[in-house]
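Reopening this ticket.

The earlier resolution said the output was attached, but the attachment link was broken on my side. Pasting everything inline this time so it's all in one place.
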Amino acid sequence: MAVQEIEQEALQVSLLDKIMEDVDKLSPQYRVRLIQRVAEKFLPSPPAEVQQTAVQRKPGQLEYGKYAGQWEISEEDFKRAEWGPDKVAQLEKELDGE
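Inline output:
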């Protein structure tokens, strides 16, 4: 490495250390805002078809992956848990003994 590259690397490390010190001074709410802004700047946007799918959910349709917990749930389990008019009608039939 050339001397210039080493100096540039040292400057970058120093700058990053200063940024981290400043981040440590932020309240949790502002840390979240910082994370959101960094993510918006550096992470790619989802493809248009993914954005359209998310917007076109039916009323009562759950969002897969939103309800993470301690259990592993398959996508099939997730689909079975969704409620809609057909599910309500099916449940009513089952409760009526049909």
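Reporter confirms the inline version is readable. The mean pLDDT is 78. The CA atoms of residues 27 and 33 lie 10 Å apart.
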